[in-house]
Specification:
This protein is mainly β. The chain is built from no helices and ten strands. A hairpin with a 6-residue loop joins strand 6 and strand 7. This is MALR1 protein. Pfam families: MAM.
């Protein structure tokens, strides 16, 4: 079970400040918005709050895919695995959302979890556990294949355990 104490570093996108994403504004393709932005679904964050912020990928932008990359995390050990909890929204027609791991010694990132347009338009939660013997970064990657209106991938409340 999770304790929501200080040991978890939470990124809820209510501000631009996130320890895990120091270059937050340099991550092209993601927009920080809320449900009232007039940009289509989602119309609220995962708690149902219309004015709370989240990140989304808008099919109205040129970029149909975008990566959100964390800063570098230290290797995990047996006592402190890195657990990442997050909420995501994937459009049912053509959205794909993936979490990848890029280790220090490797040039490309490997997918460790992925979901694509099989879900109804709703927020879902997931937790992944990362075990790495070397320094690594975590990449959240979203893609929308069609330019149809309302097709998007969104992410909210990314929480990192103290093992990260």
């Amino acid at each position: 079970c999770f304790n929501s104490g200080s040991s978890w570093d939470k990124c809820d996108f209510e501000t631009n400040l996130c320890k895990a994403f120091p270059e937050f504004n340099l991550q092209p393709g993601w927009i920080r918005r809320n449900g009232r932005s007039g940009m289509g679904p989602p119309y609220s964050d995962h708690n149902g709050n219309e004015s709370a912020y989240f990140l989304s990928l808008s099919s109205e932008m040129q970029s149909s895919s975008a990566a959100l990359r964390t800063n570098v995390f230290l290797p995990t050990d047996e006592e402190h695995l890195c657990q990442i909890r997050f909420h995501y929204w994937v459009s049912q027609m053509s959205g794909t959302f993936m979490v990848g791991l890029q280790k220090h010694s490797e040039d490309t990132f490997k997918s460790i979890w992925q979901v694509s347009g099989e879900l109804r338009n709703q927020w879902n939660g997931n937790t992944i556990t990362i075990n790495s013997t070397e320094k690594y970064e975590v990449i959240f990657w979203g893609m929308v294949e069609t330019q149809r209106q309302g097709e998007t991938v969104a992410i909210d409340d990314i929480t990192f355990s103290e093992g990260c």
